[in-house]
Every structure is written in structure tokens, then in C-alpha cells.
Amino acid sequence: MAHSPVLIGTRGSALAVTQTTTVANALSELGGFDVELVRVRTEGDINRAALSQIGGTGVFVAALRDSLLRGDCDVAVHSLKDLPTGAAEGLTIGAIPGRVDVRDALCARDGLTLAQLPEGARVGTGSPRRAAQLRAARPDLEVVDIRGNVDTRLGRVAGLVEGAPGDLDAVVLAAAGLARLGRLEKVSEFLDPSVMLPAPGQGALAVECRSADAAEGPLSRALAAYDNNAARLTVTAERALLNRLEAGCTAPIGALATLTEVRLHLEVVVCSDDGTRIMRRSAATAELDEDGARALGVRLAEDLLAAGAASLTDLAVS
């Protein structure tokens, strides 16, 4: 008797389907089972208002989680930077595969870099984190709030997509998403983390499942084999920091953890929305497990709060 395929939940965007297909193929190979993609429409796909007005990037997650809990799918694939930091009852992040490029990328007309953009150039982003760091690096730029999938946003840049609006000089997107879609030729500059720290979890995927399914069986074994320890430790530190600050996914906060054989290093930046005030801190630990990573994030968050980071943006003060 044939076994039912494992149902993999995904958003319907080209980027989501591309990255979910990669996950589905890997799990199928590791677990020896068939897979089937289940497309789920989320509030973030339907509502075109600014993310900060409709609940942040968590709006991309809720419908997928509901589908998991209802049993409409067996796992759901998320861009990890979109995933709220709080625990979801009944659900577990069963795997975090190897992380790819964490950087943000500038896609500008005429191949211009950030330094080469003329005064008053219009740069699009839907991220308060990117907007604040753009304003800090180039206060003379006009930052324009935009939404839409990757190709829609690329089409806003003059000369990048034939027949598209082309009403902006540049947009900033995640390098990981551009790579997954085969759009790296549109990048005019990869932004160094010293200029623009990425979002916590950027460049990583989260494969979420029901907690009971993470305990045993072929799916559980496939998820365990797919999980990447370095990716899990770095994003655990970054997300623990964000969780302690009680800052949402759209807060103007960048964080990046890096792992060597002997230590886990975490760097963070907290910005005011207008980019005129910035606080940057870093810390490290030699405790190279999830508890150590989580403790590092919490410790750095406490340092930021003690230094007055809550005066820059809306953070926890307790």
C-alpha cells in the first residue's frame, strides 16, 4: 500500500515556492518519502498596506501555521527572518538548513553603488531596518516605502526591467532571495554588514512542523538530518536578542551572529527610525550550544537596554 506524500506548506510567491521546493526535495531524499507542495495565501500576500501597519512580517506566517495545526500540511517553510520570536503552541522548528548569503543587496540603475547614488536619489524598501540604516549612511537620500514581490520591486528601478515603472533609482533586497530566484545580475552592490546589518535570521529558512511529528518517524529523522548546527546556533542568538528586546520583525534592528570553532560572536545595531541615532554593540561566548547562544542574545539585549536603546525605538524596558 502506497504511503501518502508529506505535504509541504508554502506561500504562493515565486521566491517562497522556489525555496520550499528546495526544502521539499531535500526532505524527500533524506526521508525516502514523496512530497507535495500546498500553497497557502497569507494576509501579507493579500493586504498591500505597509507591513508596519498590518502586523509586521508575522502576517506571512499565521496562515501557514494555521494550516499546520489543522493538518492541511505536515511542514511549513518560512523565511526565518519573517518568523515571530515567540513560541507557537503545538509547533516546533524541526530544521534550519544551512544558511546562505546574509547580506542586503543594492539594486540600482546604471550599476551605481550606495556611495555613487546622487543626492536626492529615491531608494525603495519596505523594511524600517533597511530604511534607518540607509538614512544613517546617506541622509541625503529619499527613502520610499514599497511592497511587492522581488520582481515587482526590481521593476521599480529605472532601467532594470523593460516595460516596468522604473520610478526609483534603487531598491534594497535580501541577497539570499535574489540568489534563489536567479536575479543576482541585478545587484549593483552587496552591502557590507558594517554599513547595513541584516535582519535577525536573514539568509536562513525555518522548516516548521507539529511538535508531535518532530519526535519520531521518517519525517522526524529527515528533519534532524537536514538541520544545520551552525545555522541553528547563529539564528538562535539573533532571535533571542530580538525576543528579549520585545521588538517585532519590523523593528529598526539588525543583528548578525558568526560562529568559529571556539566562539559565537553576535553584533547588533539599534536605530531610530530616521537613522539619526544608532547604537551598535557586540558580545561573544564560548558556550557553543543552543543554551549558550540563547544566553548570548539575552545578555547583549540587556546591555543595550541598560545603555538606553529603548530611547531610540519601541523596545521592552522591563
Automatic annotation (TrEMBL):
Organism classification: Bacteria, Bacillati, Actinomycetota, Actinomycetes, Micrococcales
Organism: Arthrobacter gengyunqii
Annotated Porphobilinogen deaminase N-terminal domain residues: 7-214
Protein name, as recorded: Porphobilinogen deaminase
Domain Porphobilinogen deaminase C-terminal intervals: 233-305
Names of the cofactor(s): dipyrromethane
Domain of life: Bacteria
HAMAP family in the record: Porphobil_deam
S-(dipyrrolylmethanemethyl)cysteine modifications at: 249
GO molecular function: hydroxymethylbilane synthase activity
EC number: 2.5.1.61
